[in-house]
């Protein structure tokens, strides 16, 4: 397992950097905190974005196959216009009557199962998960939280304590229990459901024995940080049932898979045929404008609202609502989910064909336009597989295509392009990754 906090990062002296960027890096290092890290061995420097493309100061364009924040494309003119129109009138908060806030809230909950009919707005996915944990703990009367073994759920103190992905220096809460997934554990898909339920029930038993109890099962519905373990659909159902049997709530973290990315469903949990108690939203909700939300059942929301205060100056501000409303309009009008499914299938088939020609591709998994590609020859071991994956990422960067890695060993390529990508973008990526794969396997 990798212990590097950001394997695909810039390390001074590792690569030749042009003077312009070297001077900017020096200024950056002289003023920014040490937690900041630049991505790629040779950092990228962008001055504008448009659709699927990012442009450096010299006008070279890079195909963005990684960025799920502007999910409807960089600088989407329709979304930008909606924000500008609202900003030119007023930017208010949720303590004032505002019809557009209510209009959007009604539209948003209308995309969920009918049981999920209340929404509270936040600014980020971290805030959403933080708030969901507060609601779950109050509603359940317990503190324990069950997460997957390499989960990432945010950067606040509370969410960092339930995020094993952040590294050993970030201590997990004593009330957290981690469960393994079938893929990393080497368990077949046929046994995935039984394996997951067994893991969850074991965690429940330990939490109860220690007098902590179970507040929530918190999961990213495609387990993206664990390596994009999307299949088989429904494998989490037994674990969901087990948590509810002991009074815990089920929280679906949709910050990454939500808003149509999985193709056939607006929300990733829909693939598993479960209805959570709380759903957390962030990143693509405003196409780059910071807005998030917790959507949930009335009972826990009301119980929390009656017993605790939650007010956030910027959460639900009218400019953010304008951006989010425009996102939802485009998703429905342009049938973005169907498009994501079609492009995801094109990408998956292309990668599976690539795997038949290159043994360095060990596996391909996807749900719509969220793809995990396992990289490396088995004979090279974990360190060799990781090195190969990182080499591919940086070769692609040099070729003008952006992706990254995921998984405990960082040997899975993480591919999640904006949902507006077209066939020519998919084909460009497939061409580039095949070229990078040949070079990387030869070098490592």
Automatic annotation (TrEMBL):
Gene3D superfamilies: Aspartate Aminotransferase, domain 1, Type I PLP-dependent aspartate aminotransferase-like (Major domain). Its cofactor is pyridoxal 5'-phosphate. SUPFAM superfamilies: PLP-dependent transferases (SSF53383). GO terms for molecular function: pyridoxal phosphate binding; transaminase activity. InterPro entries: Aminotrans_3, Aminotrans_3_PPA_site, PyrdxlP-dep_Trfase, PyrdxlP-dep_Trfase_major, PyrdxlP-dep_Trfase_small. It holds the Pfam family Aminotran_3. Keywords: Aminotransferase, Pyridoxal phosphate, Transferase. Belongs to the class-III pyridoxal-phosphate-dependent aminotransferase family. This is Aspartate aminotransferase family protein. It comes from Rhizobium vallis. The lineage of its organism: Bacteria, Pseudomonadati, Pseudomonadota, Alphaproteobacteria, Hyphomicrobiales.
